[in-house]
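tool=predict chain=A
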Amino acid sequence: MSTLANTPLADLDNDGRLLSPVFKGPTKRNGRVAFRGEIALKYQASLADEKRPPEIKLDQVMTVADVGATTIPFLAGMAPSLEHIKLLCEVLGDKLAADGKYFFFACNLDISLRFQIPYGGATFYVMPLDESTVYNELLELFRIERGDLKKLDTAEKILAVADGALRFKGKFEEISFQRGLEVMGPIKIKENRPV
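tool=predict ok
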């Protein structure tokens, strides 16, 4: 069994960036750990010893990492704006790989748009997210039957989605990050988002 200690997720965990975990820890696959929850991207200024929630976070995160590896092979999550890819890359730094599979759902994209955006040495599959969840969108994108996952525990479901991501060969229109900023809309403020 593995802990996050010797994986690329260790620094994020030590920095207190892995928040609200639905799952965080070892899986039944030797050497592979998983996380489902939120990643803090930008903190609010705090006064004295006051601990405040992050100003910006990546929600509905699913990711896996391997013991001894230096990069994260798969990560998916949702942010209010496409421009937050920049913050994500600043937080993850060299933990992103050129051959990794990264799925970034932006709430301020038109529902008809899907892009591949190279940034920070990696390529992001960028999609809108309106009424659905990251989990449901990925199941549909990877053609994973929900019934096949019913008897799996949370860690096994994350592994199944990660495996689907690593097999994914889809292509979207490739645009620059700058072009993405030009086509995105204003940040939508929504209450009671699905988890």
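The radius of gyration is 16 Å. Helices lie at 10-14, 85-92, 134-141, 146-149, 154-167, 177-183.
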